Amino acid sequence: MFYTDEDLRSEELFLKLTKTSEAQPEKGWVPAYYFDICLPDGTRAGKCDLRVGHNDNTCIGGNIGYEVDEKHRGHHYAAKACELLFSLARKHDMGYVIISCAPENGASARTCELAGAHFVETAPIPETNDMYRCGKRLENIYRFDL
Known about the structure:
alpha+beta, four-stranded antiparallel sheet, 7 strands, 34% strand, globular
């Protein structure tokens, strides 16, 4: 069951649902939401997603992904979007969410910290994971308890 985006807003931004995706167990994919991160006037500042549930893929790739458009960086919009996604994850009784990033991605690590997640470990990416096939070998894992 997917929820609407009507309560995913703060004074500084709102999340506009662009699509949802059902689970694809054969690929190891859980259900997912995809959003535009929007400023109060509707300007798109980036995008984010929430992958609902936990499995081997989300343990490495995370439950939350985000990307802020270059001209909107520096305002902590990704961390603020994570806070809104946490409320949606609570509706799904997830218990916790994982956010991961490449060890060299200091900006994403800072986003995790600003969102209140705590560092768990730097984990090797399994050879069976799509990220490994794309050339990634390590991922920093952060956890936020809901």
